Amino acid sequence: MTKKPIASLIAALLASPALAFEPFTITDIRVEGIQRTEAGTVFGYLPVKVGDVMTDERAADAVKRLFGTGFFKDVRLEIDGGVLVVLVEERPAIAAIDFVGLKAFDKDQLRKGLKDVGLAESRIFDRALVERAEQELKRQYLSQGYYAVQITTTVTPLERNRVGINFNVQEGEIARIKQINIIGTKAFDEDDLLDLFVLRTPGWFTWYTKNDQYSKQKLTGDLETLRSHYLDRGYLEFNVESTQVAISPDKQDIYITINVSEGNKYAVSSVKLAGELLLPEDELIKLVKIMPGESYSREKLTESTKAIGDRLGNEGYAFANVNAAPEVDKERHEVAFTIFVDPGRRVYVRRINVTGNARTRDEVVRREMRQMEASWYDGDKINKSRTRVDRLGYFDEVAIETPAVAGTTDQVDVNINVKERPTGSLALGVGFSSTEKITLSGSIQQQNLFGTGNSLGLSVNTSKVNTVYSLSYTNPYSTVDGVSRGVDLYHRKYDNTSLTSVATYAARSSGGGLRFGIPISEDDTINLGLAYDKTKLKVDSTSLQRYQDYVSEFGDTNTTLLGSFNWSRQTVDSRFYPTRGYIQSVGIETALPGGNLRYYKLSYQQQRFFPLSKKVTLALNGEFGYANGYAGYQLPFFKNYYAGGIGSVRSYEPGSLGPVDASTDQRLGGNRRLILNGELLVPMPGTGLDKSIRLGAFIDGGQVWGADDEVDLSTLRYSYGVVLAWSSPIGPLKFSFGQPINKKEGDKIQRLQFQMGTVF
Questions:
Q1: CATH code, domain carrying 66
Q2: Which residues span the domain enclosing 692?
Q3: What angle, rounded to 10 degrees, do the helices at 298-313 and 379-391 form?
Q4: Which of 336, 479, 503, 714 is 20 to 30 Å apart from 344, CA to CA?
């Protein structure tokens, strides 16, 4: 029977109500032309089956559906008697995708990205997708500063109806910022304004920061920085008129021109409050940072409205609306502000939700919350809660949101989202020194044991001279009131009898103790401790005479019942990366009756942190220690203070400062110690505001004095240098490289120093 084409008649069918063929009943369906596609796939898309009546509408629908699959570039329908014949021509499949000349991006990552949008090996070839992929690849190069990039895409037909796709890339060189000009500046020097920018011309560190490469986002940020600089200094009418970014003909140099209008400098003529104040006006006006007679400052005005809003938030008005309306006098160049206060409705907290804590139990976070459920919203308590959770040290990030409860006007939820950090560490180390030779060390520390907030630590440190084994456990909430309880056990051995260059002695100590921390306010804690220690000394004829005399008088075995008391206040905003606040502590450690030693040690320490900007933090530390014997006893020589090293005065060898035995050059330590430190810390360039790795400059000072010495500040040793602090996966690390300022004869210098652990 003669085949009759149906597809060719569809156009005529759509144009005329007359039928292109007589409807017929389908007795069979045959598919021709398929190579990779299963016949069942074609049958699945057809809107008809054997036994149906074939009409012109169904024929048009069948062609449309098969084209819609994207598998075929041609579809025809024919009639062979009562048999419907489907003739298709398949689109080619992609055999391979390759890149030539690619350096800036990883090939595998690009292939994965193309696969996500449907362009991958064994997939159906679609030229539209290839063109989109080419444009996206070019866009990625342009975003990285490769403005001279050229991409040529080649599609090569292969056997078995397949194609190979090749992206040939000529990257060229990265375009650099050649010049940045600010037109219209009069009040400030152009160079000073350009120093505010992130974008800059090539310099010493731009190879690392990439800030000499143009970025629209960075330029937008720089323009806002420029605007803030003017608005914070009285230029109320400042405006960026236009910005032009031009590229050289060879597409290697970028020129940025910024046209600004400074306007006149305005002073504040008056500031008044209006609206529903709720609180006494005298109290609110004290929160206003901008005063009449001062130059206008957007920063101070924003701080003022925020401070008033926060104060109302402390009273439960979480959605207080505080806005400043200006009245500008252009003739006198003055501006008056009326701060309108709309407290809104007082709200309370419905529920506190904790998210992001996969390991840490909810109760560990909740017990630090000072904002309670079903109580009035209090902004201060919410901020204090965030700070307390951050101080735990279990989380890299702590964020709090207070969304309104849907369908209510007087309720909010407190959503606290945390990003957990590894709180367990396993550290192994091998070291070498001229005095202790080979040193092996290892420690296991878990600050958040099983997510309970309890900490457990086991450490081993062994060398030819020192061996230490210690175990500690702390429960920070042994009572619901936040009283902490800790247990410590240790065994130490010190033996320098193998070192012939110094006077020798050996000591073996074992002991343990209990300690309690009692919070007496939000920021103040009293720590009490009671420990037992047994130390056995060993001296010989090569030991210092003072060591031999001590053993002769007090014996070679000493037992100590050690009591300790410490008061501390902590207001810092973070445990690991503090930027503001202080830590202050006063303590006493004393040998109590019950042992055969009598001595005490007094200590005072204060650390302060000042945020000089969003990125720069100034850290200051000062500490003083005093020790002595009592009741006719002297201070045991093995309880002396020492100084020098990365924990005290950097650039000097650990423990090398203070009294020295003239005959052996051995450092004796002393009963008084003074340490002063200053650090200026910034995030590592190129890491944004990430504080986990920071660079800094330091200046240290300190000294140790013996019982027979006068405290003479002129004998302090000073040093300066650079420091790198990294909160690494294996624990906090600190490196320093420094130079002594007032080195004296006999001082032992160690310019490069390293330490693991949380130290100032």
A1: 3.10.20.310
A2: 573-760
A3: 100
A4: 336
Alpha carbon distance 414, 399 (integer Å): 10
Final residue before a domain boundary, out of 27, 59, 90: 90
In angstroms, what CA-CA distances link 570 with 331, 391, 523?
A: 52, 10, 5
**Rounded CA gap, 672 and 626, in Å?**
5
| pLDDT of 11 strictly over 60 | no
Q: Cα–Cα distances in Å, from 264 out to 226, 235, 328, 335, 390?
A: 16, 6, 12, 12, 45
Rounded CA separation 543/666 (Å): 11
pLDDT at 153: 92
pLDDT score at 463: 62
What is the per-residue pLDDT for 9?
41
Looking from the CA of 230 toward its CB, the CA atoms found within 13 Å total 25
Asked whether 175 and 214 are in contact (CB, 8 A), the reply is yes
- Of 381, 396, 420, the residue at which a domain comes to its end is 420
Residue 195, exposed/middle/buried by CB under 10 A (0-12, 13-18, 19+)? exposed
Q: How far is 300 from 520, CA to CA, in rounded Å?
A: 36
> What is the C-alpha separation between 378 and 312, in angstroms, rounded?
9
What is the Cα Rg of the chain in Å?
Answer: 38
User: Looking at the domain assignment, is residue 385 inside a domain?
Assistant: yes
CA distances from residue 623 to 270, 321, 626, 629 in whole angstroms, order as listed? 47, 46, 10, 21
User: Where residue 655 falls among pLDDT bands split at 50, 70, 90?
Assistant: confident
Tokens of 621: 């530390």
- Shared domain check, 599 and 549: no
Q: Is residue 347, in this structure, part of any structural domain at all? A: no
Closest CA to 577 of 727, 355, 723, 389: 727
Tell me whether residue 65 is in a domain: yes
Residue 463 φ then ψ, to 5°: -150, -175
What's the total number of domains in the chain?
7
Q: Quickly list DSSP for 648-683.
A: SSTEE-TT-SS-B-TTT--B--BSEEEEEEEEEEEE
Helix (H, G, I), strand (E, B) or coil at 85: strand
2 pLDDT more than 90? no
pLDDT over 60 at 5, yes or no: no
Whether the pLDDT of residue 362 is over 50: the answer is: yes
Band (108; pLDDT cuts 50, 70, 90): confident
- Average pLDDT over every residue of 212-218: 86
Q: Could you give the dihedral angle defined by the CA atoms of residues 19, 21, 26 and 31, in that order, rounded to the nearest 10 degrees?
A: -110
Instruction: Using pLDDT thresholds of 50, 70 and 90, give the confidence band for residue 274.
Output: very high
Same domain, 66 and 108: no
CA distance 56 to 540: 115
Strands 437-446 and 424-433: antiparallel
Distance from the Cα of residue 520 to its chain's centroid? 32
Residues 614 and 750 both lie in one domain: yes
Average pLDDT over residues 713-740: 83
Three-state SS at 44:
helix
Contacts of 338 (CB under 8 A, 6+ apart): 272, 273, 274, 324, 325, 327
**Residues 6 or more apart from 285 whose CB is under 8 A from it?**
273
First to last CA, the chain: 96
